[in-house]
Amino acid sequence: MSAQYGKVDTGFVTSLRRLLGSRVFWCEDSQSREVIEENSRDQSFHSPAAPDVVVYPNTPEEVASILKLCNDARVPVVSRGAGTGVEGGAIPYKGGVVLNTENFQKIEVFIEDMIARVGVGVKKLQLNKELEKHGVLFGPDPSSNPCLGGMVSTSGSGMSTPKYGTTRENVVSLTVVTPEGRIVKTRQEVRKSSTGYDLTQLYIGSEGTLGVVCEVVVKLRPIPTVRSGALVRFASVEQAANAVIGIIRCNLTSLARCELLNADGVRATNEVFKTTLEVVPTLMLEFQAEDPGHLASDYAKAKEQAERFQAMRCEYCASGADIDDMWEARRGCYPAAMSYR
């Protein structure tokens, strides 16, 4: 560890264990090796780096105590969620403490306000499974099924951005612990507020550099009644990209997903997921609305744009369930490409 940082020694670890008991895992303890290893890497190609200690707090107050201790001892801290990132953001290259947030599992739904208060350790699919009971969903849809903390820290977007926007557009407020150990609520849980600085937007996308997010209040949307989809095949990526520009300009209100795989991406997906997609640049579309006629109308406009740019084939799926396997394959495109290499 660089000399500018403090040392993680027995005294420091003893102080952490006074706070958290058995939820502290030190690299010097043989029984902690598996936990240390799990928290030394993410889903990226970046080399792993082992932390000196991993902690699992349960509350913002425990996070505050940990950060105060680390700040006083000048020990570096990396906050971690599901570890699904592909940029190395959760890897503790300076050692120190990994603050794992997976125990933050609160889900409170306020259906009358169309918001939910969610712990940052809750994963996106887990949240939407709970929200489905209330007929609502959380719109952003990153393919990797990250936790809410990871989505906030990176302003994760994903496949449903055309309809729902990124995480940034779907967060009302945050509970954050600053590096000095102060608990901050960024704003009141109301839809409209013009008072003071917009701290919520400051923290979203900051990747843990400004503090540790513990809770997120998110906006909810009604689950669409009907879904449909389409596969549109092109001879070149350039033609497909131009078609996307034309489709977006049409302002199709039911367009929820618009994803493009190049031929190599299709080939890798076929290899790993045993799909049988034609190995050409392929545009994947999904439409969501309350009226099947609305879906068909928007698809016709999208098809018109695709044919303007020499689409080879357009295949329409009237039922959204018919394209679910396709979307699962799209979610796995990155790991498929990595393993195919």
Automatic annotation (TrEMBL):
Pfam families: FAD-oxidase_C, FAD_binding_4. One of its GO terms (molecular function) is FAD binding. Keywords: FAD, Flavoprotein, Mitochondrion, Oxidoreductase, Transit peptide. Its main location: mitochondrion. Residues 47-223 form the FAD-binding PCMH-type domain. Its EC number is 1.1.2.4. This is D-lactate dehydrogenase (cytochrome). InterPro entries: FAD-bd_oxidored_4_C (IPR004113), FAD-bd_PCMH (IPR016166), FAD-bd_PCMH-like_sf (IPR036318), FAD-bd_PCMH_sub2 (IPR016169), FAD-linked_Oxase-like_C (IPR016164), Oxid_FAD_bind_N (IPR006094). Belongs to the FAD-binding oxidoreductase/transferase type 4 family. It comes from the Eukaryota. It is an enzyme of class 1 (oxidoreductase). SUPFAM superfamilies: FAD-binding/transporter-associated domain-like, FAD-linked oxidases, C-terminal domain. GO terms for biological process: lactate catabolic process. It is found in: Mitochondrion. Its cofactor is FAD. The lineage of its organism: Eukaryota, Viridiplantae, Chlorophyta, Pyramimonadophyceae, Pyramimonadales. GO terms for cellular component: mitochondrion.
